[in-house]
Amino acid sequence: MKNFRLSNDTHIGYVHLQIADLKRSLHFYENLVGMKRVREVGATAALSASGKDPFHILLAERHGARPKPARSTGLYHIAIRYPSRRELARAFRRLYDGGASFQGFSDHLVSEAIYLADPDENGVELYVDRPRDKWVLQDSQIQMATLPLDMDNLLGELANDEPKGGSADPMTDIGHVHLHVSDLQKAESFYHSLLGFDVTQRSYPGALFLSAGGYHHHLGVNIWAGKGAPTPPADAVGLLSFGVVVPGKETIEALKNRFEENGIQFEAKRDDIVRRDVLRVRDPDGMTIEFISTN
Prior knowledge:
The chain has 295 residues and is α+β, with helices and mostly antiparallel strands. The protein has five helices and 19 strands. The protein has a single domain, classed as 2,3-Dihydroxybiphenyl 1,2-Dioxygenase, domain 1, CATH 3.10.180. Strand 14 and strand 15 form a beta hairpin. The chain starts with 10 loop residues before the first strand and ends with a strand.
């Protein structure tokens, strides 16, 4: 397979989630996480930090959707990235005041992160990056770890008279997506060798991290749900797709050519929800990746 690398400006644009109750999910993502509604059409709502396009989270209600089986492929978590430590601290307090249950607090060296789940048990990471000049590169890998997060220090970012509630800073976005896959080698072949993401870290047991442009990771994949884990049923809550934004149509055309050369099925068409031309492809576990260009 010919070498191919995605442009440095590539980033995650959005995640598309199947949920069981739109009203319940909107309360979580708007009132607690701090997103704003861009538009709502029937049982589908698009959210962003600014309340304008491009959206970051697309919620699609499926009435009677069942829980995602724990030992299956699919979403591990979506990662909402705040532009500053203060904004992450504000998000934590907004969630805490709203009665959210937290699952973990971690210092990853490259970032500081808070973990919880949405009402459908979709994993959610809230995080802020440390400056890039603080990231350590060793043996061509960006060093990451899972250490305790100093919450007292983080909450020290808040002023004593800090107003409660509020919304997320408009610069908040989706920093990365982390997936359960059935096989790491197949995932690496697809996301690295075919799509052109760089491998940034392979030292975590059972996991692989990939990115474009030297970021610590735009994608995480792991086999923590079990090697050979099955695909979840279509009527389960979870990830329907995620969008990858590339800087130009030249990349879209290059990807189409790679798919054709390697016998990979894809779909290229106008998407009424995204309101852009979308190049859609599925990974080895059937998860949908949607490529869109900025022009």
